[in-house]
């Protein structure tokens, strides 16, 4: 019988979703892809396939899980299975360059960015920001990997020559315009089924490792406000543009992160297709992202079963 197949590599991040699926009485398969095989001589099973592969999988020792997932998604899509967050979503998850170019095509402003490989090329790229503060980040990232702020070229050159230099797992480092906000926070906007779930104000005063999952968190003790706070009644001109982006790129579940500078200009700098939710913020707001996600997957499974029933009846 058709079921929900959850494709992932992080058991801790997937556990809240599995709990929500079980509470909803929904059948599912835990398809953990840290390693495994895809038999291209066989047809895939039936069901709804939800991809939650993460760009930060290599930090958990799962270096080639994204590549294996790409093979799995190509197999599923070639057999016309019902895939949510398919191959295009995975491509966007694994490359900020791909994200920025896709965002640009929809008129969504992103920070000025240069992608480079090699220390000489990185120094040349940084020189383009001479006289300005700039940041580095990894092209294949997640969890704020590689995000560092530099005040000048000399500081960056010293970093490149130090043992502390940390290249991106795909070799591509981004040199990016530093967007200074009047207050230390960013906004994260969550979508499920390409519809707005909620937006979250995220305090960045403690740094940019902004994974909202419970297992990523450090205590909020000593902070003036909670690090994650759901915004009641959120509205913004970017919302309909984000929806069009999701439609155009066949992304079903995602989060966008943007920052607003001192002139009130919003810069979108991240599209996360392996989204997690902060349980403390949700408890305060009385909502549950994983419950909403499980319900969405349940609706997709019901619709798939109805279509299969109609096709079977027509064949008879």
Structural summary, described in words:
It is a single chain. With 316 residues, the chain is an alpha+beta fold. The chain folds into three domains: 3-93, Rossmann fold; 113-177, 2-Layer Sandwich (Dna Ligase, domain 1); 181-285, 2-Layer Sandwich (D-amino Acid Aminotransferase, Chain A, domain 1). The protein has helices spanning 11-23, 65-78, 87-94, 96-105, 119-127, 153-160, 238-248, 279-285, 289-315; strands at 3-8, 28-32, 47-51, 82-84, 113-116, 134-138, 148-150, 173-177, 185-192, 195-203, 228-231, 253-260, 266-272. It has a five-stranded antiparallel sheet, with helices on both faces. Strands 2-1-3-4 form a four-stranded parallel sheet, with helices on both faces. Strand 3, helix 2 and strand 4 (82-84) form a beta-alpha-beta unit. It is globular. It starts with a strand and ends with a helix.
């Amino acid at each position: 019988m058709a079921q929900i197949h959850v494709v992932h590599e992080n058991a801790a991040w997937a556990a809240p979703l599995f709990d929500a699926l079980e509470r909803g009485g929904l059948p599912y398969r835990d398809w953990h892809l840290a390693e495994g095989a895809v038999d291209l001589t066989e047809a895939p099973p039936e069901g709804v396939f939800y991809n939650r592969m993460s760009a930060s999988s290599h930090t958990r020792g799962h270096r080639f899980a994204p590549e294996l997932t790409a093979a799995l998604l190509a197999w599923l899509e070639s057999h016309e299975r019902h895939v949510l967050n398919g191959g295009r979503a995975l491509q966007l998850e694994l490359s900020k360059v791909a994200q920025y170019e896709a965002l640009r095509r929809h008129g969504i402003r992103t920070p000025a960015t240069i992608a480079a490989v090699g220390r000489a090329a990185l120094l040349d790229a940084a020189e383009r920001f001479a006289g300005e503060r700039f940041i580095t980040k990894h092209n294949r990232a997640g969890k704020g990997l590689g995000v560092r702020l530099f005040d000048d070229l000399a500081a960056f050159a010293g970093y490149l020559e130090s043992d502390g230099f940390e290249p991106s797992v795909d070799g591509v480092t981004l040199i990016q315009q530093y967007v200074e906000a009047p207050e230390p926070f960013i906004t994260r906007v969550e979508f499920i089924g390409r519809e707005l779930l909620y937006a979250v104000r995220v305090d960045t005063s403690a740094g940019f490792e902004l994974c909202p999952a419970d297992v990523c968190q450090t205590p909020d003790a000593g902070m003036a406000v909670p690090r994650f706070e759901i915004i009641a009644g959120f509205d913004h001109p970017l919302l309909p543009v984000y929806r069009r982006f999701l439609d155009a790129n066949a992304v079903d579940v995602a989060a966008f992160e943007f920052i607003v500078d001192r002139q009130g200009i919003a810069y979108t700098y991240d599209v996360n297709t392996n989204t997690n939710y902060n349980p403390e913020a949700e408890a305060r707001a009385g909502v549950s992202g994983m419950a909403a996600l499980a319900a969405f997957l349940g609706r997709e499974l019901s619709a798939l079963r109805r279509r299969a029933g109609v096709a079977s009846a027509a064949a008879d």
